[in-house]
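Example record

The entry below shows one chain as it appears in the dataset: sequence first, then structure tokens.
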Amino acid sequence: MNYWIHSQRRLFIVALVSFVASLLACIVLVFAAWHQGLDPVALTGDAKGYLLLAQNLLSNHSFSFSTQAPFVLESFRAPGYPFFLALLYALFGTWLSVLFVQVVIVSVAPVLLYVLFRPYHERAAFWGAVLFVIEPVHLFLSASFLSDALYACLFLLSLILLEQGIRQERRSYLAFSGLVLGASILVRPIAIFLPILYAVFLLLHSRFSREGVMNAVMVCVACFIIIFPWMLRNHSNFGSWNISSVGSANLMIYNASAFLQYRPDVRGQGVMERFQQEQNALPRNEALSLTRSNVFINTFADVIRGHEISYGIFHIAKTFPFFVTDGLRDTVRLFNVDIGTMPNISTALLSGDIGLVVQYLRTGGLAVALLVFGSGFWIAVTFLYCYAVGIIFWKRQYAFAVLFVAPVLYFSLLTGPV
């Protein structure tokens, strides 16, 4: 027993530090919000939306943003996180209690990261988990009603089950990996294509053997079992098999508008203005409904028509902030701290306007300090990550490279300008 405790010492350290740090972050967030006269459980618009969906699930048994009958069905948000909140509220009775319980649950994310990579490099896994614990925005997300932290736990757990299923040759682990991955998709629909990456990993690891094919199919089927009921619900009510409309809506609301700022186009701007007028004329539930998914996609294609290559370059360049920026400035603004307006640095660099960036950095102040600190942290993390990737390829661990590299590229490319 003593030997086992000693061998798991670093695991206990990560778990303890993660729990204490997340709990302290939650206490600080709650008191800072109260000090500013804010509601600590509803600091952001997204948090307010998740709470309303959870409340309607509990009180009206309807997944809806409506505040009174008739409760119009919602299709923009995915159901996973509101159902998670509704379950916790049913158990603990107040939203502040739910917030603290969530802190305890999501504080396991760094522990999962450590467990995932410990078999490959124990020391790197430990320090990577410690960096994850102290990253400021992770602490904020852990102590806020936002889906990111829960998703991180589910995603990491699915990777652990996938890796352990192969390592121990246990198909039950692979099946559970698919089930957990399905649950993560219902929390963050951006993960909808991850089953393909899991299948590729399994096929590469088995060198396309029959067993590898069966394992890949098992993971995908298990994932599909979880997400299919919600897909069927959406098809029955909105005529779409998608999990939510958030992906297609983002193409127009964020990607298209950001591209037009980077490369102004009279025709594309006209398309965007007509789209915005149409959106403004619709109620919120209709404007962002799954029934408009094809409208979002087709209108986006119309905006970038004739500039597909330029948009591709723009989209890839816009993945750069994914690796080097943080949300510190946005987090500080939530507490009514005025830090001024920051230019879009990635767009300025893409346009070759380096002078604008230099001029902004010279202004100093809190905003620049947060930018330098936050970006410096993530530049260091990205450098360490690239170093690790180099080692993986040097050791010719190509199957593991798929597991280690592909998800990062996946999220950066799908996030893009958003």
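Notes for this example: The two ends are 49 Å apart (CA to CA). The chain has a mean pLDDT of 88.
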